[in-house]
Amino acid sequence: MLGMSLREAAAALRCGQLNPIELYQKCLSLIKETRFLNAYINVAEDVALRQATEAEKRFRQGKPLGELDGIPVAVKDNFSTANIETTCASQMLKGYIPPYNATVVQKLLDQGAVLMGKTNLDEFGMGSGSTDSIFGPVKNPWSYSKQYREKNSGSRTIADDDSDWVIAGGSSGGSAVAVSSGTCFVALGSDTGGSTRNPASHCGVVGLKPTYGLVSRHGLIPLVNSMDVPGILARCVDDVATVLGVLAGHDPLDSTTIQDPFQTFTLPDDIDVTNLCVGIPKEYHAPGLSTETLSLWSRTADLLEDAGAKVVEVSLPHTRYSIVCYHVLCTAEVASNMARFDGLEYGHRANVEDSTEAMYSATRREGFNDVVRGRILSGNFFLLKQNYEKYFLKAQKVRRLIADDFVKVFKSGVDVLLTPTTLGDAAPYEDFIQEDNRTRSAQEDVFTQCANMAGVPAITVPAGLSSRGLPLGLQFIGQAFREQQLLSVAKWFEKQMNFCPLDFYKHLENRDICQRKSNIASLL
Ligand code: GLN
């Protein structure tokens, strides 16, 4: 049951083969069994039961609400959820209960989705490992697969199981793990520099960052307003297309959403890639790219060519400045966004009454982690009167050049770009935390943030396993508002790779800690 795609589950619910309450119960048991992965900050057990019960009633009356009726979903904890705590994994918002739903959350609920809970992330979405959360790091389920254990037992001791696991990627690591461990069918992430695609790739699921302006940001707690987009994580491309159809479209509460109505689409099973022009940007041969990812990338280019597509090398010459510009623009917007957290309006307030300034300062010291404070300081530095032109304005100008590179390439006849999503497979936690957040993000976001700088859509699709037994994904980048074309190519590729997100369950290791997991396997 939990190995189905969203579409299959929806069809089974519709014809009565599946019951929403039963489906909710299976997902809930799985959430409990996989607690150790730390994917969920808050499991909305009661709310979800109520929603599943209502869905069951609707099905009984033959009046389902929409495509997602009775489907268990999860939402990253930086989307506002009415009457459900929304923390951004930060001390600052602990205990904050929004009075309204983010537009995208409301749209899911309007379709009858069952909200299983809120997922873990790097504090305020700042990171790429889901390791910087006040609720502790998220663990990648593939760390517990037999392949990974066997391949890696030689190089590190696995006596203490808890120290031998790899990161989930981030910052939407909780959402990626929630999908890849089968606890929900689809999860919302956010993507500012790669936060949906990075964990999707590391956890072996599909992750879409839609075009900026296609999906409402209302109620998504902002990180970088000019780059943030809600992302969709699911088990397959078809499911992403279904959910995009539900979420996309103008929102009067977000003035950056486009007015044109979104044409929903269903992808055909047989996709023809002949006549498709696929660009391979030469600048994406970045230092640190693993040989495995490189070979996967070039094999995929060959595969496309064999299937009749035209594959051409292209140049996006300003790519090499992108990560630095991203840093300047990201921190500058973070500095102004985070100013709202002053101890008066939301969440945490320090118990200091000497002066308003002292209260602000203590609140922010106690409420934010080092990463958030560091980004606020950098951002304010870039925005100082004497630095504004030198850094902020300059970065804005370079951003335009980066976006123009994409426009030029697409104008020259290229339909989509094919690139790696990450440099390699997921790092072991112990190695990952040796570096500081900024260095890690610079490495992890190298192939993803450019699409945010340009506002274009991008999707990661799982392609296979590395020699260490961990998932590897590849990224397709498309033209603005041409999601249908992008998802078609992604679906074609998915079919060639035939990767199953839940496969690691078949390979659970027979160790003590995996005793619990044999229960999981029996649920599937
Ligand atoms: N890793 C990036 C950062 O830390 C991505 C953030 C995001 O997409 N939310 O800025």
CATH architecture: Alpha-Beta Complex
Order of helices and strands: HHEHEHEHHEHEEHEHEHHHHEHHHEEHH
Q: How many H/I helical runs?
A: 18
Please tell me how large the radius of gyration is.
Answer: 22 Å
Tell me, briefly, the overall form: globular
**Intertermini distance:** 6 Å
Q: Overall pLDDT, averaged? A: 93
Distinct bound molecules: glutamine
Structural class: alpha/beta
Number of domains: 1
Low-confidence stretches: 509-518
Helicity level, as a percent range? 25-40%
DSSP strand tally: 11
Query: Can you tell me the CATH topology?
Result: Amidase signature (AS) enzymes
CATH class: Alpha Beta
Percent of residues in β-strands: 5-15%
Largest sheet: 11 strands, mixed
CATH superfamily: Amidase signature (AS) domain
> What strand order characterises the main sheet?
1-3-2-4-6-5-10-11-9-7-8
Pfam family, one: Amidase
EC number: 6.3.5.7
GO biological process, one term: glutaminyl-tRNAGln biosynthesis via transamidation
Protein name: Glutamyl-tRNA(Gln) amidotransferase subunit A, mitochondrial
